[in-house]
Design brief:
The protein is an alpha/beta fold and about 425 residues long. It has helices at about 10-20, 25-30, 35-45, 55-60, 90-100, 150-160, 195-215, 235-240, 245-265, 295-310, 315, 355-365, 405-410; strands at about 70-75, 80-85, 110-120, 125-140, 170-180, 215-225, 270-275, 320, 330-335, 340-345, 375, 385, 390-395, 420-425, 425-434. The protein starts with 11 loop residues before the first helix and ends with a strand.
């Protein structure tokens, strides 16, 4: 087998494989250990007669350089808000230059600037660090009063003062987000680990924007299992995965940590909950689990996140990490007047049998017995159904890259993403897949 070069675009043997009609995308992925999306993009470039290297394409004038988004808005009081996405932190001096270019004197404004950071995985197998830079310039009062304020004026101002609550106050609601069935390390129809990471970070980014806009007081991130693909869940995984098991765990923890970093600044109470699962189970061989219900890589990721968050209580003191009680595979918690239960649901023989499993848990007074809503993973496609006395079961979609085994068997291909919805007092609304 050839040894792949660091830049496959410059490798003539790789190009020959792309041009070989007898080779499928999967054949090339397995041979060169690259992503399915990467191979598909390179073959499409060749079909259009373009260089397969994006850098060469830009130099040849066939593809414009990537344009990162930016905006500049001015409200009715003359305050400016400028936002730019860049591969660096933009200094204050450049923001002030932007004001001058638009004909404004920076001395007429009180200014502030900030930024957030995230990772972007491109189809060219490149990981970028991007910064969302934001600059605010507020108009200064046109004139400072030189005369002293009289006692009567002060008393009148106090007497006539009316408190108007901020429009940005937290609302008494909870927001549920289900980053479940990531199966990091898996390669399938829609790509591998890099494409999974791009999907997951995009979902977290959308969730952060919703939380920032709607301002729910409480937020819960529920990992309903299968955060890693594992190497012993099936005998094929050792040949199909693009990450070994230790690096699956590293990737899973990095993605979940990034999700917490993106959501935590926008709420007053954030909970990260994780449950045991079949792909997450510690195994010593194919179909050979070892240890109890907590010998699980998803539980390990949650516990490591809890330890890491304690290093910065100023930023993450309002974040709670929860796993099931010893020997249990499910858990429950309260959010905005609603009792939430969570389980992976591989314990049920089908998605239709989850309600039967739940009935048994209620009879046994186990963790999810009195839950109003039950959140489940495992089945990879969205399902919402009522059960019992007005309770609800939510089966979340997966964030992995699809299941060719299921698609070949049934012809179905579910929408990938994270289930999200709002809740308060046992009611729910705003359900979406992010």
């Amino acid at each position: 087998m050839p040894t792949p070069k660091l830049n496959l675009d410059q490798n003539p043997e790789f190009r020959a494989d792309l041009e070989n009609p007898n080779l499928t995308n999967a054949d090339i992925v397995n041979k060169w250990h690259c992503g399915n999306g990467y191979v598909g993009d390179r073959r499409a470039r060749l079909k259009r007669g373009e260089p397969i290297d994006p850098t060469e394409a830009r130099e040849a004038g066939q593809a414009p350089p990537e344009v990162l988004p930016e905006s500049h808005s001015v409200d009715f009081e003359g305050n400016h808000t400028i936002e730019k996405v860049a591969e660096r932190i933009i200094p204050l001096s450049e923001w002030l230059d932007d004001l001058r270019k638009d004909g404004f004197d920076p001395d007429d404004f009180e200014t502030s600037h900030s930024h957030s950071v995230w990772m972007q995985h491109t189809r060219d197998q490149v990981t970028k660090v991007l910064y969302a830079n934001k600059f605010i310039a507020r108009k200064r009062p046109q004139k400072v009063r030189e005369a002293l304020v009289s006692h009567a004026e002060v008393m009148e101002a106090i007497r006539t003062f009316h408190f108007i609550p901020s429009e940005r106050a937290f609302q008494d609601a909870g927001f549920i987000l289900m980053p479940t069935d990531l199966q990091t390390g898996k390669v399938d129809i829609a790509g591998g680990t890099a494409e999974t990471a791009e999907q997951v970070l995009t979902s977290f980014s959308k969730a952060a924007e919703i939380i920032k806009e709607e301002r729910p007081r409480q937020v819960a991130m529920v990992d309903a299992g299968d955060v890693v693909e594992n190497v012993f869940n099936t005998s094929a995984q050792l040949g199909t995965n693009d990450r070994d098991l230790p690096h699956q765990v590293v990737e899973a923890m990095a993605l979940m940590q990034k999700g917490i970093q993106m959501l935590a600044p926008h709420c007053s109470d954030l909970r990260y909950a994780a449950v045991s699962s079949n792909h997450g189970a510690f195994r010593v061989g194919p179909k050979a689990p070892a240890g109890d219900a907590h010998a699980d890589y998803g539980i390990a990721v949650a516990k490591l996140l809890g330890i890491a968050l304690e290093l910065n209580p100023a930023a993450f003191g309002h974040v709670t990490v929860q796993v099931p009680k010893p020997h249990m595979e499910s858990l429950a918690f309260d959010i905005a007047g609603t009792r939430i239960g969570a389980v992976h649901s591989h314990q049920a023989s089908s998605a239709d049998k989850i309600s039967e499993w739940w009935k048994g848990q209620a009879l046994g007074r186990l963790p999810v017995a009195d839950a109003d809503f039950l959140l489940a993973g495992h089945w990879h496609s969205l399902r919402v159904q009522q059960a019992g006395d007005g309770r609800w079961i939510f089966v979340g979609p997966s964030s992995d890259r699809g299941s060719s085994w299921f698609t070949n068997l049934k012809g179905d291909q579910a929408t990938s993403g994270m289930l999200s919805f709002f809740t308060a007092d046992k009611q729910w609304w705003g359900l979406d897949i992010l």
